[in-house]
Amino acid sequence: MESLIYRLFLNNWQQKLVALISALVIWVFVNQSIIESKTIPGVPIRIVNLPPDKTILGLLPNGLLSKRITLTLTGTKDVIHDLEPGDLEVLVDASMIDHDDWIVQISKKNLVSLNPSFDLLHHVTQVSHTEHVIKLRQLITDRIPISIVVRDETPPEGYEYLDHYPQHLTQTLSGAEEEIQKLKEDGLELVIDLNEITKSDLDGIKSSHQNLQDDEVSFPIPAKWKKVVIPFHNNASEEINDPEAAHLRIDFLRKETLPVKNEIPIRVFYPVKYITTLNPSTSSLEASAQVHHKNALYYFLPPLFARGVSRLFLDIIRENMELTIVAAPKNERDYLQWSIDVIDAHELEDTYVAFLVANARNNKNVASVSKNREILLRKRFRDYLQKLVLYTSPEQRLHLQNTLEGDKIKVLSETNP
User: Fold this and answer.
1) Which of 63, 115, 240, 278 has CA 20 to 30 A from 212's CA?
2) Which residues of the chain have pLDDT under 70?
3) Residue 127, pLDDT score
4) Architecture, CATH, for domain 34-131
5) Among the listed residues 24, 33, 141, 27, the one whose alpha carbon sits nearest the alpha carbon of residue 77
6) What is the value of pTM for the model shown?
7) pLDDT at 13
8) How far apart are CA 310 and CA 160, in angstroms?
9) How far apart are CA 198 and CA 204, in angstroms?
């Protein structure tokens, strides 16, 4: 046995070693000389040396094009066989682009290895690819309108959504003219979901007295929500760069039942078409336990409440509210129509806005009041007017059944005995 091992490994070992080394060299040489081709999809294209006044359609902020390219690489088998799409990218020198619609010509000099294990320059012999056109365009900068959409189906319990401020924002973007123009037409959208705001969030603001009104609560929108999707940036989200976004907030009204306190005057409106038969001399209000006649005027005596409006709004309008009953012949209408009216609403609106503007200017924690903010406050006042509803108790809406009986108009409510 020892003799066999000696003859196999030790006898003429110098010649056998030379033969082994020669075989290894030949194997390496042959392996390196084997050529293989491989198609690699989705290879990114990076643009460098782009003139500052130019851009390329589909160019992303990171310098890559949104559209990728498919390459077929030919080279040594040991490198080509193991290549994957994430191992390389194509580098295009934009200073070499000589016209607006330039067909990319890629050679191995354009290949950049993202994997230090692969030496593409020395192991790739040929590059072929699908046609790819780079569209060089003039770079423009413009402001894109942002629509703010508030999903208010389910505001936090105990609160109702009022409005948001600012009403509109813009995003300053740079890009190719056709991209910017299309985006200006379509606009961007910021969606705020009220489900993301909790009751404890609003209760905390109320108790901290940071808001100007105790029952109107302003929720500042967190910075992480202030993002919009940019379509030509591969639908990436970007922070809103409008300075007004710093003041973005949602305003809520705390649901409360507010006592009106005042006795409300009752007035009869006599339509012109009935004026010959229905007028103050032929038909007048009848005093009762709930309708008080004083100083030639009639007042509704039972205590009333308001909901869906703020305390400031109610404080400002309470002296100017009245109940209006519309006279009509008995044969035309069993129950007379009625409404809650606010007299001199325009003047009261000015008072409401002036009060809030003055408070905002005196509050160091509140940004300066812009013209747009005043417009929003006026809209809020008018919304309150539309929503104003009176109640006879915290849960019972005021319901009047007014009838014309002979020459008297009787006012009956559900609280009548």
Assistant:
1) 240
2) 1-34, 153, 206-213, 362-369, 414-417
3) 87
4) Beta Complex (2.170)
5) 33
6) 0.76
7) 58
8) 11
9) 10
